[in-house]
Every structure is written in structure tokens, then in C-alpha cells.
Amino acid sequence: MPRCPSLARRVHRIASMTDDNERLVPVQVESKIKERVLEVRKEFEHLELAFEAANEAGEAAERRTPGSSAPLRAKVQALCAIQREKELEILALEALKSEYECWSAKEFDFEAYLKTKMRAFERGTPVNDAPLKAFDAAVRGGCETLDDDAEFMVVGGGGDGAKGVKNAKCPLSLKKVEDLDEPLEDLKGYVYEAVAILDYLGRKTSVPCPVAGTVHTVKRADLKPSKAVQRLKARHLAASRANDNERDSQCISP
């Protein structure tokens, strides 16, 4: 008797949707999932490079002629649509990985399952418009640059054993991480403004990471205050006080 009869029925319905797609037996599915995940990761890398190139080109175009970056923005929107499709595909693959052991079907339509699952996730998954916001910021002359402290955060590890903060700005609010009132960090070391990431999550327990080029999911239960950012803010505060004390001493010197 199958462990998940309702899933088996869904798989049977999906498998009967089309005769054109590749059909797999359960023992083939795990290797197929790993293969597809690697393909999607490569595509995310290409998308990240494309977003970076568009940001640089958009900024240069605006410096030459204001308003000339509009065609590039349309291309970034098209890239965002592709990125969303890949994010949904990752979610579908993760669901498939956790479900396939329950099947009782003798064969399975892999592509049909993914398409059906992606449509289901699309209805409840927020749109990731972070790359478009980054492009608009670049066009306004606000290209993301890392100062010395941010560079230290990105390449340095956190004292609590984390891999360190990997982004200099929140991908949702576009604020520098050191300017966030309540920075939250996920398991991969990406930092977000608390209000922004919780709003992005909505009622869901997990969503695709809003940082362009990433493929992991952000889970509400895994978010925690960022100790690395707290240390950075403490350093800024200490440096500011030291500068104030130095100015005060100069003012009272004869």
C-alpha cells in the first residue's frame, strides 16, 4: 500500500496529461533532479552576469544621454521574468525531491509534473523585483559599491560560525546593511531589513532568496538577528565617538 496515496493519484493525473514528454521510473528521478538543479544553477549564474552588465550599461547610457536607458530596462524586465521561472522551477524540484519516494506509479512524466508544480507555486510566490530595483538604482547613479567595512563583512566570516554577510545592501529595501534598524540574516549569510523580508514572506514559511543569482530558499524559521552587522554598527559608533572626542580636544586646545 503506498505511503502517500493522494500524491500517487496526483502523479497519475500528471503523467496522463501528455504523451510527448520524457517518462521516468522512480529510480531515475533522483539523478534527473540533480541534473536539472545543476542546469538551473548555471542559468542563474548567467542571469547574474546579465544583470550586472545591464546595470553598468544603463548607468553609462544615462550619463551620456538622460532617458536612454529605457530599452535596457525592458530587457532587465524580461530577464526578471526568466529568473522568476527558474525560481519556480527550483521550488518545484525541491518539492519533487521530497515527494518522489512516495510514488506508487510505475512511470512518471517529469516535465509535466514540474510545469504543474510551478503553476501551483506561482500563485503564492512573491515576484522578485530586486534586480529591477538594482538597475533603477544604478541608472540614478546609485550603483552598489562596497566601502572598507562592507568589504570586510563580505569576505570575512562571522564570529558566531556563520560564513559572513554576503550582501552590502538589503535586496528589497536597497538600504546598506549597516543602516538597517533590524537586520535579519538567513542561513546562507544574506542580510535583509526585517520589515522588508517579512513582508516579502507574507504568510508563507519560505520563499526564493530575493538576491539575484541565488537559488536557495529563505525560511522564516531560519531568520535571525545578524551578529556580523551588529558588530559593524558597533565599530561605526565607536569610530564616530572617537572622531567626536578628537574634535572636542582640538577645540579646547590653546
Highlighted features:
254 residues, mainly alpha, Herpes Virus-1, 2 domains, three-stranded antiparallel sheet, two-stranded antiparallel ribbon, 7 strands, globular
Give a verbal description of the structure.
The protein has helices at 5-15, 26-64, 70-99, 110-122, 130-139, 148-155, 194-201, 227-252; strands at residues 23-24, 108-109, 183-185, 191-193, 206-208, 217-219, 224-225. It has 254 residues and is mainly alpha-helical. The chain folds into two domains: 5-134; 144-246, Zinc/RING finger domain, C3HC4 (zinc finger) (Herpes Virus-1), CATH 3.30.40.10. The strands form three sheets. A three-stranded antiparallel sheet has the order 4-3-7. Helix 3 packs across helix 4 (110-122). The termini are far apart. Mean pLDDT is 75; it is low at 1-21 and 142-163.
Question: What is the secondary structure topology, with strand pairs?
Answer:
Elements: H1 5-15, E1 23-24, H2 26-64, H3 70-99, E2 108-109, H4 110-122, H5 130-139, H6 148-155, E3 183-185, E4 191-193, H7 194-201, E5 206-208, E6 217-219, E7 224-225, H8 227-252
Antiparallel strand pairs: 1-2, 3-4, 3-7, 5-6
Helix pairs in contact: 2-3, 2-5, 3-4, 3-5
